[in-house]
Automatic annotation (TrEMBL):
Gene3D superfamilies: Vaccinia Virus protein VP39. GO terms for molecular function: methyltransferase activity. GO terms for biological process: methylation. It comes from Putridiphycobacter roseus. Pfam families: Methyltransf_33 (PF10017). This is L-histidine N(Alpha)-methyltransferase. The keyword Protease does not apply. Keywords: Methyltransferase, Transferase. InterPro entries: EgtD_Methyltrsf_superfamily, MeTrfase_dom, MeTrfase_EgtD-like, SAM-dependent_MTases_sf. Residues 4-311 form the Histidine-specific methyltransferase SAM-dependent domain. SUPFAM superfamilies: S-adenosyl-L-methionine-dependent methyltransferases (SSF53335).
Length: 314
């Protein structure tokens, strides 16, 4: 709570104003994100599911695992695990010996996933870990078992490039040579495809973005009037970064009681809430160049919208 208050105070005092996207994910936000993932405009989910369901054998072949050696399959930000279940099933069918360790910030999501796996894959050894990716990183090196780390869904795209660099660098420092990282990323493409994914007709993404203000109202005693803010996504193919903003429709003053502070918004003033980076080989190579990982392979969907990059620890 104190950290939340600090981050919000800092963000709204910035010029231009910002709010961290990690705070989207409370109970209501988790639910809205689930809805986003099943929208027709949000092509990312289907594209990565296609890779996991159609190229499962190829993926397992590329992972180059030893059937005789127990390994750990660690998933950062596991969510509902729908894509991963395709891989888990095939690994079991082929007789691999492994444990699945899903990590997520949401205890809710983990409980649901554990229950689902118990029904569909009752023999699978599942060990859930709740927490922030960065917090969990240090804990993973406790065992010397071979590791495959999954970081899917273009979750890395919500980090600025410098943060992504240091995250993958840290990850490299916490695993052993020949361990694998499978990084699922959305690819740079024209705005006609990307923008609708962040600006759906039903207004689900708008509600997801506005939920941040609702959360500040609820948890910090603020009086944001959600009707006086608009959702505004922006993207250019040259930059390759989808950005989400909340825009004040009018000149207004908002009070945050628990801080004893007021914040003024001009008509048309923007709060930057999220970045969703899109990638290509050059962007990804620049991100991993100072880390201990090297690029081994890339699997894409038939439309070429999404890629799962296989990185190997040098
Ligand atoms: C979780 N993350 C990869 C999503 C994305 O595409 O950046 C979050 C999201 N924001 C708006 N729509 C979906």
């Amino acid at each position: 709570m104190e950290q939340f208050k600090k981050d919000i105070q800092l963000g709204l005092s910035n010029v231009p104003k910002t709010l961290p996207s990690k705070y989207f994910y409370n109970k209501k936000g988790d639910k809205l994100f689930q809805e986003i993932m099943s929208m027709p405009e949000y092509y990312l989910t289907n594209a990565e599911f296609e890779i996991f369901s159609q190229k499962t054998k190829e993926l397992i072949h590329l992972l180059n695992l030893d059937k005789e050696r127990h390994f750990e399959l660690i998933e950062l930000g596991a969510g509902d695990g729908v894509k991963t279940i395709e891989l888990l099933k095939e690994l079991i069918t082929q007789g691999f010996n492994f444990s699945y360790l899903p990590v997520d910030i949401s205890a809710n999501a983990l409980a649901g996933l554990k229950e689902k796996l118990h029904i569909v894959l009752p023999t699978l050894d599942v060990r859930t870990k709740q927490g922030d990716y960065f917090e969990v990183l240090a804990g993973i090196k406790e065992t010397k078992k071979p590791k495959v780390i999954l970081f899917l869904g273009s979750n890395i795209g919500n980090m600025l490039d410098d943060k992504a660099k240091s995250f993958i660098y840290q990850l490299g420092k916490n695993v052993l040579p020949d361990d694998k990282l499978l990084l699922g990323v959305d690819l740079v493409k024209p705005k006609e495809v990307v923008l609708p994914a962040y600006n759906d007709k039903q207004g689900i993404t708008k509600a997801f973005n506005l939920n941040l203000l609702d959360r500040i109202n609820e948890e910090l005693g603020a009086d944001f009037n959600l009707d006086e803010f608009d959702h505004q996504p922006e993207y250019t193919e040259e930059e390759g970064i989808a950005k989400s903003f909340l825009v004040s429709k009018i000149h207004q003053v908002v009070t945050i009681k628990s801080m004893g502070k007021v914040f003024a918004f001009k008509a048309g003033e923007k709060i930057h809430t999220e970045i969703s980076r899109k990638y290509n080989d050059a962007i990804l190579n620049n991100i991993i160049k100072e880390t201990d990982f090297k690029l081994k392979e890339k699997l894409t969907d038939t439309k070429g919208y999404f890629a799962d990059y296989l990185l190997v620890r040098k």
